[in-house]
Write a structure and sequence with these properties.
The strands form four sheets. A five-stranded mixed beta sheet has the order 2-7-8-6-4. A three-stranded antiparallel beta sheet has the order 10-12-11, covered by helices on one side. With 219 residues, the chain is of the alpha+beta class.
């Protein structure tokens, strides 16, 4: 992302991933998965059709510098990172990985999106980053898996049991590290996965990509 990127908004009308998939099916286009999610919490196996909260679809255009679009985070939420920090992190990646990235959108939190909680999403040539609670505390009703505990610990997140609830506690520094070196890189990994079509295999590849080019590269 170059310094000339501008703070702007898209003129495209919101559409759901399901509507876009249906449009592609009618047109006989390649139906390789175009949406992938960096999930929050404990719901696993979520698929494209499960995401019902409308999102802004950015049409794929000619090669151009990555645009960064910032929407208001929403009441009680904040964006974990800034446009400048995302630009610097993307610039540190090998250019071949960001060649197809046309938009990074900081999306706002809505009531519907809270029903499908995720940190980030890759959809076509765009990456979407979702807000975090303003308190930097995520609350869950079920205990984290061992993998989730390890991952949070890698970036400084702390799981705390509070009676029947589990809380994942971040600081300003740790949540920034997590978004820049895990969430963002995970979604860029999806963008560069040209082989896998199975959801599980695509997720496995993105996890590997985030470790190799996010966590390890930043340590």
């Amino acid at each position: 992302m170059k310094s000339g990127n501008r703070f702007s908004r898209s003129n495209h009308q919101p559409a759901s991933p399901r509507a876009v998939a249906n449009r592609a099916r009618r047109a006989g286009c390649d139906l390789r998965p175009v949406a992938a999610f960096r999930q929050r919490g404990l719901r696993s196996g979520l698929k494209l059709e499960d995401f019902n909260a409308p999102e802004v679809w950015h049409e794929v255009g000619a090669a151009a510098p990555t645009r960064c679009l910032v929407h208001l985070a929403g009441a009680g939420f904040i964006h974990a990172v800034t446009k400048a920090e995302v630009g610097e992190r993307l610039a540190a990646l090998p250019s071949r990985f960001t060649r197809g990235l046309q938009v990074v959108q900081f999306s706002g939190m809505t009531r519907k999106r809270q029903l499908f909680p995720c940190y980030g999403m890759q959809w076509g040539s765009a990456v979407y980053l979702y807000p975090i609670e303003e308190s930097l505390i995520e609350t869950y009703s079920r205990p984290p898996t061992p993998e989730q505990q390890v991952e949070a610990g890698m970036f400084g997140g702390r799981w705390v049991n509070d009676g029947k609830l589990w809380r994942l506690i971040w600081t300003t520094e740790t949540i920034r590290d997590f978004y820049l070196n895990n969430v963002l890189i995970h979604e860029v990994g999806h963008l560069n996965d040209f082989r896998n079509t199975n959801t599980r295999d695509r997720e496995r590849y993105a996890n590997w990509f985030a470790i190799e080019y996010g966590y390890r590269a930043s340590r």
